[in-house]
Amino acid sequence: MNLIKRAKAPTPKFFKVLRNIGLALAAIGGTVLTAPVALPVVLVSIGGYIAIAGGVISAVSQLTSTKDAIQ
Question: What are the transmembrane regions (predicted)?
């Protein structure tokens, strides 16, 4: 199964929930990174890590299909 077919395939319920959590984490991290006030370097670094982790979680969850569970 190629990448495009895998992305279009149905996603199991658990991974849909996990994808939404990842999107929320990415949004929170992006908000921290683009905050209009000066934040300590530690918070900005953590925000970057949260944004990356959220993006990876969302991408992996989206590419999981129900056909993987059956085979």
Answer: 21-40, 46-65
Position 1 in a domain: no
CA distances from 55 to 1, 63, 67 (A): 23, 12, 23
In a domain, 64, yes or no: yes
Confidence (pTM)? 0.80
- How many whole angstroms separate alpha carbon 22 and alpha carbon 3? 20
With the C-alpha atoms ordered 11, 14, 16, 21, is the resulting torsion angle positive or negative? negative
Helices 41-62/13-33 angle, 10° precision: 150
Averaged confidence pLDDT in the chain: 88
If one counts every other C-beta atom within 10 angstroms of the C-beta of residue 65, the result is: 19
